[in-house]
């Protein structure tokens, strides 16, 4: 490859766009400084392009719009020549019906090869890549199309410009009243505008080069297992640097900044993303200016026509990710305005409502209806000045304060009391508004000149302007205002008088004291908002209020009710508030109107113009008309015809307009979903709650505190800085408005990746390992030490088996669980256990821990140390909670981690909660907070209280005569322990603790990896405190480490805890969620590694890894747990094959996912029926639900499939299916109105047992489902993603699949049978998330009694495993299958 190659030649060689190359090089860190065709590329840039695109030839995939091919060779040649396909300058593929046809440049052939779509999808799905086909990846052709060879002279004529014009208009087949042209041949346009390509000889040489390079790559390929290990080593090494680069700043509105009592209140600047969109449109499409709200954008014609299909698809994808829907077909836009003077009908004033209602009533221009109920939406303001004057009278003072760097002085509100003060009791009474004393000033005026002269030399607090001595006492967070402040004031006065009276008498000294107080404006607002919230709540339905933002909403009947009287009543009820209204206030309305005769206008235009789009816009009172065109030279002719036709519409009161053609520009239609964008931004910020934040100042990162509240767009931060000077600097920076962006400081992420790097390096190098053999078996489980005589150990008449059964903690442990537990107990290095959903993993883990502790104690090992861990808090908490029993205190678990992160099941073991209990007693176990999803208020148990109860029960077993006063006193003492007893219990429990529960990410000793980290982790501190180890000298070590949910862990995450254990027990299910890996993230990491490589050898090593990631990423996506499970010896491997969660009918559905592992059976009926259909809900094994909803669910229905035919829609990076949302809404209504469902709810005491779980796979679908769940407030509903539901279960589960075989571009898009005759919408075949069955397995396996699936059968049946699933549902007579419209 030449060192002086130009950009346009490289683009031509690899059949890719210039913009695509520019984006690639920008992403890889080697940007082009001038993106023009003649730009000279550097060696490194050429190498990147060749590595990315040079391996295989990519061919364009174009649409075939001509007649279909026949079996006649001559006829096929005529078809090819008639549409310009004999003049192509590069080999292409075209899609004709159900096959892809290869059309070569050299057409001196007697046939064209073709591939059936179904063959490609089945045998070579990776051959299709974004409207391009990689021929080398294709399977063998499905057949060939006969064709007469092309005559060379025709080619030569075309090459010398002797052919006819390529752009031809087809004549209209049907006469019409409008004199219009036919459609333009888009395919001919596409092929005729391609740039000149390389010659065949040049392409042949390039193919040979790539082939030779491929051979070299093949020779250099190394062991997949070693490659994956090395990739992960590089990944964790580099990620620490890259995390900082990926931290996106958040723009804030500087005018919203408010700081009170170390709390920073800001509002997110919503225009942040819009500025980024501006760059996209201007750089890529050449738009000089645009208004997304207008629905159209003018782009540069030259830039637009130079785009190929691949570049165009990339632009559409980028815009879609930025919530913009782009119609890539240019169109003439016309409008019929039938009510512009009425304003937007979604936001109308009362006058406009009456005006529109009058027009509809008269029926001359507009028809339709206005809903009676409209919404008043506004904000409540607090009249702060009046309220403070009411509270503090004339003591309320406002003055201006201007600090350096501040352009505008800040208004400071304080309350000053001269020789008066607010009592300590009053200050405590008004803590709800944040009342505090900021300072007091002692003011001394000396009326003796000689004494004044002497005292000036004695004190440095002389103020010459006032000729007074002023002592200022400021109260801070470190030195706060206190109860004995009056004594302090008098002591300070006395101290001054002692000195002053040496030179004058007390009568010559004038003394004044000035106290200054402040309140929190934020707390004041919140207090008044709470009053408003209480009043609004009492009003009933139709009223809403957000007591964080002050937003108020009132639904009222605009025809009958006076909204302003309603508002005045609210203002009178709560003093010092104002509900903001405007002179011509607009209300949110629901209007369904259109011009009279709309259907006739629409039908007439559709009959006369091909592909025209005519849509009524009732919001703007317009008809939008879009007439697509391809060739700009015919724009004027089409525009004239359309205008003449529209002018024939004889309806009084309308105005017709057509957007004019702008020279050198093309007008495209766009739709900007700003509401969805703001939703996603709000979600991302809310997820960062409790995260550290900072800002950049002079290239320095300044940390200022944590995010406390996120009520988008309003954010509240705690300015958490101990140094007063630093705090003052931070406050000044915000108040002077020099800070307009804030950034999350990902200390937690950096610490986590640092620990991963440290432990992964230990595992790969074999240093500092508790078990030196870990280096081998954790990456290749086949090398783990096998258990000898495993058959004897598992024999039911053997000692080990009998001993296990004799001392079972849980008598319901089944045979497969017993075998797995025995294998784990006797394993020397590692044991791997697969546990499908509902098979009792948590119960088995608790039993395993009990047996390990019991055996350790039996063998004299009193300090058995077991680490129970998982990637999620929920998995740890579920397993650890099963250990609680009323028989024995032998197992003493302690849960590490912040209380706010723990589930209720694990909170009872929290070391922090235990410490609080010692200090506060039982009061710390009650909480007023509610679970965000379920709304459940709960009381926390505590393992120490369970411990005391067990001691009490055993102590008085058989002797607990309640009449005996000694027994009664002891029982009462133990039941209500005082602080001293609580301390004794805590100390003894911790001293004998033998199980530690913690998430994987928290485990580690030193905070290593970055200069800003120092000292030890909280985990290490707790470890040393619990096990009485010397900090700094001790190493973390456990006898056994048990990791649950291991299938979700990456290799680095899975390895981390086992570095600290003598034995590893790995538990998971590779048929459930695997780790979520991003190929692009690995590519970026390795690209960075190449950039910082220390020598050529290191660079070559990185390049090998890059090649591996590029070609074998699917190997990396296999969970490390699966590799361990499949390679380990049978003596070290256990499988649970009985599940106890689901009804057998649901089990039949789930069983499809486990056939390769020997299947999955229902333990509720195997080996015997435990009462699966028992009508007694008190039977823990019953899965009877008793629901009887006519036409939907019967007593025996446990699986209901609703075949959805509604289209999916892309929304940013997410997807939504509004039809499925409506179906689930109807389902919930049926539950709500069902007497049998109400009786069903009465059977349960716990709220979680009553809940209907609604699961989906996309965040935007979850948002929609949460909104309908809110509507059904009488139903207990939990809505969440499949990831959050893993490890959980519900009696009733509804799964929304979202993906469909059809797709719409907007929610209001109607089916168009003319354009899409088969289904009314564009066809889509991607399964998305469901391409891997694991996620669906998790979703479906959450249900215990009733599983309802809402999904598109046709799309999902394209995979064999799902086809079996549907067949299973269909063949079981208890199950029901309904169409969407039957619900």
Q: Quick summary of this structure?
A:
With 1383 residues, the chain is α/β, with parallel strands linked by helices.
Can you give keywords for this protein?
about 1400 residues; 49 helices; single chain; seven-stranded antiparallel β-sheet; alpha/beta
Description:
About 5% of the residues have low confidence. Helices cover 38% and strands 20% of the residues. It has a seven-stranded antiparallel β-sheet. Strands 37-40-36-41-42-35-43 form a seven-stranded parallel β-sheet, sandwiched between helices. Strands 5-1-2-3-4-6 form a six-stranded mixed β-sheet. It starts with 6 loop residues before the first helix and ends with a strand. It is an alpha/beta fold. It contains 49 helices and 54 strands.
């Amino acid at each position: 490859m030449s060192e002086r190659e130009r950009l346009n030649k490289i683009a031509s060689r690899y059949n890719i766009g210039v913009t695509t190359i520019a984006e690639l090089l920008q992403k890889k860190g080697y940007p082009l400084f001038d993106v023009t065709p003649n730009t000279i590329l550097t060696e490194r840039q050429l190498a990147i392009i060749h590595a990315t695109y040079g391996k295989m030839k990519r061919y364009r995939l174009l649409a075939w719009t001509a007649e279909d091919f026949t079996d006649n060779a001559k006829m096929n040649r005529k078809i090819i020549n008639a549409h310009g396909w004999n003049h192509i300058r590069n080999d292409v593929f075209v899609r004709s019906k159900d096959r892809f046809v290869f059309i070569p440049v050299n057409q001196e052939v007697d046939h064209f090869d073709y591939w059936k779509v179904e063959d490609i999808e089945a045998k070579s799905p990776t051959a299709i890549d974004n409207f391009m086909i990689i021929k080398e990846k294709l399977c063998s052709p499905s057949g060939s199309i006969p064709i007469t060879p092309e005559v060379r002279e025709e080619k030569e004529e075309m090459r010398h410009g002797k052919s006819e014009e390529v752009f031809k208009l087809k004549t209209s087949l049907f006469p019409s009243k409008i004199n219009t042209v036919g459609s333009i041949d888009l395919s001919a346009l596409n092929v005729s505008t391609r740039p000149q390509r390389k010659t065949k000889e040049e392409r042949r040489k390039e193919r040979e080069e790539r082939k030779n390079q491929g051979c070299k790559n093949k020779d250099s390929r190394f062991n997949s297992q070693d490659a994956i290990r090395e990739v992960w080593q590089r990944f964790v090494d580099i990620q620490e640097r890259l995390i900082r680069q990926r931290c996106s700043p958040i723009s804030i509105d500087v005018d919203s900044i408010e700081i009170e009592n170390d709390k920073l209140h800001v509002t997110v600047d919503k225009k942040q993303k819009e500025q980024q969109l501006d760059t996209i449109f201007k750089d890529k499409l050449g738009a000089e200016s645009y208004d997304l709200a207008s629905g159209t954008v003018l782009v540069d014609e030259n830039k637009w026509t130079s785009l190929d299909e691949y570049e165009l698809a990339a632009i559409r994808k980028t815009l879609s990710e930025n919530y913009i829907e782009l119609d890539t077909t240019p169109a003439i836009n016309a409008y019929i305005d039938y009510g512009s003077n009425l304003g937007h009908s979604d936001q109308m004033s009362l006058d406009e409502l009456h005006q529109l209602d009058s027009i509809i009533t008269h029926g001359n221009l507009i028809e339709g209806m206005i809903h009676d109920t409209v919404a008043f939406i506004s904000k409540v303001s607090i009249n702060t000045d009046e309220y403070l004057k009411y509270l503090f009278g004339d003591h309320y003072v406002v003055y201006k304060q201007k600090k350096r760097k501040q352009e505008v002085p800040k208004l400071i509100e304080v309350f000053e009391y001269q020789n008066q003060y607010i009592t300590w009791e009053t200050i405590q009474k008004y803590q709800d508004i944040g009342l505090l004393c900021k300072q007091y000033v002692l003011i001394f005026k000396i009326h003796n000149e000689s004494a004044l002269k002497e005292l000036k030399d004695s004190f440095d607090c002389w103020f010459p302007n006032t000729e007074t001595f002023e002592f200022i006492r400021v109260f801070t967070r470190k030195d706060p205002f206190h109860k004995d402040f009056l004594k302090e004031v008098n002591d300070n006065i006395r101290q001054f008088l002692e000195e002053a009276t040496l030179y004058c008498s007390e009568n010559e000294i004038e003394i004044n004291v000035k106290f200054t107080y402040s309140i929190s404006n934020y707390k004041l607002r919140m207090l008044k908002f709470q009053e408003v919230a209480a009043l609004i709540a009492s009003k009933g339905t139709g009223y809403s209020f957000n007591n964080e933002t002050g937003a108020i909403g009132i639904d009222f009947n605009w025809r009958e009710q006076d909204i302003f009287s309603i508002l005045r009543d609210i203002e009178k009820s709560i003093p010092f508030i104002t509900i903001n209204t405007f002179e011509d206030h607009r209300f949110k309305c629901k209007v369904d109107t259109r011009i009279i005769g709309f259907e006739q206008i629409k039908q007439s235009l559709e009959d006369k113009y091909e592909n025209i789009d005519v849509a009524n816009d009732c919001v703007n009172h317009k008809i939008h008309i879009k007439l697509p065109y391809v060739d700009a030279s015919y724009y004027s002719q089409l525009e004239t015809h359309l205008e003449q036709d529209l002018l024939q519409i004889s309806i009084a009161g309308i105005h017709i307009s057509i957007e004019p053609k702008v020279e050198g520009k093309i007008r495209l239609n766009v739709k900007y979903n700003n509401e969805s964008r703001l939703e996603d931004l709000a979600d991302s910020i809310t997820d960062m709650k409790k995260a550290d934040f900072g800002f950049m100042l002079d290239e320095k990162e300044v940390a200022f505190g944590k995010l406390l509240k996120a009520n988008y767009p309003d954010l509240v931060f705690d300015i958490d800085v101990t140094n007063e000077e630093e705090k003052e600097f931070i406050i000044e920076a915000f108040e002077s408005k020099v800070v307009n962006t804030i950034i999350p400081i990902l200390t937690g992420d950096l610490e986590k990746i640092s620990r991963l790097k440290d432990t992964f390096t230990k595992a790969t190098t074999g240093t500092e390992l508790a078990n030196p053999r870990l280096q081998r078996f954790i990456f290749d489980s086949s090398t783990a030490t096998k258990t000898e005589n495993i058959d004897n150990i598992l024999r039911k008449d053997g000692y080990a088996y009998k001993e296990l059964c004799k001392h079972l903690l849980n008598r319901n442990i089944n045979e497969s669980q017993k075998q797995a537990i025995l294998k784990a107990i006797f394993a020397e290095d590692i044991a791997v256990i697969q546990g499908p959903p509902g098979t009792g993993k948590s119960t088995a883990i608790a039993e395993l821990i009990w047996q390990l502790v019991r055996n350790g104690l039996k063998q004299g090992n009193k300090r058995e140390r077991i680490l129970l861990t998982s990637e999620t808090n929920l998995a740890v908490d579920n397993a650890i909670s099963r250990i609680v029993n009323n028989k024995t205190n032998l197992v003493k678990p302690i849960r590490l981690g912040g209380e706010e992160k723990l589930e209720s099941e694990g909170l009872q073991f929290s070391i922090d909660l235990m410490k609080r209990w010692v200090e506060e007693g039982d009061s710390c176990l009650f909480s007023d907070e509610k679970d965000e999803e379920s709304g459940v208020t709960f009381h926390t148990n505590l393992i120490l209280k369970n411990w005391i109860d067990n001691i009490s029960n055993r102590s008085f077993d058989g002797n607990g005569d309640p009449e005996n006063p000694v027994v009664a006193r002891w029982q009462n003492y133990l039941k209500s322990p005082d602080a001293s007893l609580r301390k004794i219990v805590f100390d003894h429990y911790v001293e004998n603790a033998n199980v530690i529960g913690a998430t994987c990410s928290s485990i580690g000793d030193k905070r290593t990896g970055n200069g800003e980290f120092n000292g030890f982790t909280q985990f290490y501190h707790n470890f040393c405190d619990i096990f009485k180890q010397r900090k700094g000298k001790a190493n973390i070590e456990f006898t056994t480490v048990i990791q649950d949910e291991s299938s979700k862990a990456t290799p680095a995450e899975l390895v981390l805890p086992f570095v600290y254990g003598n034995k590893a027990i790995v538990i998971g299910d590779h048929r459930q969620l695997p780790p979520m890996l991003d190929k692009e993230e690995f590519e970026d990491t390795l690209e960075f590694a190449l950039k910082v490589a220390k020598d050529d050898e290191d660079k070559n090593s990185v390049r090998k890894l890059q090649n591996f990631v590029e070609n074998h990423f699917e190997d990396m996506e296999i969970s490390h747990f699966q590799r361990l499970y499949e390679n380990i010896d049978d003596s070290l491997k256990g499988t649970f094959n009985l599940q106890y969660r689901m009804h057998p009918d649901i089990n039949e559905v789930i069983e499809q996912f486990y056939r390769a592992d020997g299947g999955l059976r229902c333990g509720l009926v195997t080996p015997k029926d435990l009462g699966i259909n028992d009508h007694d809900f008190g039977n823990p094994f019953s899965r009877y639900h008793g629901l009887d909803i006519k036409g939907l669910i019967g007593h025996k229905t446990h699986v209901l499939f609703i075949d959805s035919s509604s289209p999916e829609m892309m929304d940013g990076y997410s997807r939504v299916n509004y039809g499925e949302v409506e179906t689930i809404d109807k389902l919930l209504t049926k539950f709500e109105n069902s007497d049998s469902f109400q009786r069903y709810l009465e059977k349960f005491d716990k709220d979680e047992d009553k809940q209907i779980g609604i699961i989906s796979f996309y965040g935007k679908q979850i948002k929609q489902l949460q909104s309908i769940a809110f509507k059904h407030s009488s139903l207990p509903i939990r809505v969440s993603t499949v990831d959050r539901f893993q490890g959980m279960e519900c009696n009733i589960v509804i799964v929304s699949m979202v993906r469909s075989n059809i797709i719409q571009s907007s929610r209001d898009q109607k089916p168009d049978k003319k354009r899409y005759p088969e289904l009314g919408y564009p066809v889509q075949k991607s399964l998305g998330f469901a391409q891997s069955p694991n996620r669906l397995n998790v979703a479906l396996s959450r249900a215990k009694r009733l599983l309802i699936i809402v999904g598109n059968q046709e799309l999902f049946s394209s995979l064999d495993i799902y086809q079996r699933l549907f067949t299973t549902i269909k063949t079981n007579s208890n199950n029901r299958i309904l169409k969407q419209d039957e619900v």
